[in-house]
């Protein structure tokens, strides 16, 4: 219970400090909205308003998704046999190395 009151006191002190630094309504609005601000009216459902994210967040999300799929396909290209058939047993590695040495000799 003490942590809830501490969080409430911290939030009210942040708003109070914003009001004391600049008494305009714009700073108070910005202090209360934090990072949620002003990207159009958005969609409201059951009291929750969802706004369209800025372009930079959409672009970064696309970049992260493309990087993930590139990595998945890259690893499948290089390790696809192990992915489909499973890894070789530990004793098979020794047998394969011995066969490679025989072929080189």
From TrEMBL:
InterPro entries linked: NDUFB2_plant/fungi
Domain of life: Eukaryota
Any one GO CC term of the record: respiratory chain complex I
PANTHER family, alphabetized: NADH DEHYDROGENASE [UBIQUINONE] 1 BETA SUBCOMPLEX SUBUNIT 2 (PTHR36987:SF1), NADH DEHYDROGENASE [UBIQUINONE] 1 BETA SUBCOMPLEX SUBUNIT 2-LIKE (PTHR36987)
Protein name as annotated: Uncharacterized protein
Lineage, uppermost ranks: Eukaryota, Viridiplantae, Chlorophyta, Pseudoscourfieldiophyceae, Pseudoscourfieldiales
């Amino acid at each position: 219970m003490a942590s809830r009151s501490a969080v409430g006191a911290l939030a009210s002190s942040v708003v109070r400090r914003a009001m004391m630094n600049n008494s305009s309504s714009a700073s108070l609005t910005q202090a209360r909205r934090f990072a949620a601000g002003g990207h159009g009216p958005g969609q409201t459902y059951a009291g929750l308003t969802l706004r369209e994210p800025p372009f930079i967040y959409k672009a970064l999300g696309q970049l992260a998704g493309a990087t993930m799929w590139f990595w998945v396909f890259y690893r499948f290209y290089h390790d696809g046999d192990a992915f489909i058939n499973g890894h070789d047993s530990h004793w098979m590695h020794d047998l394969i190395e011995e066969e490679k040495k025989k072929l080189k000799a």
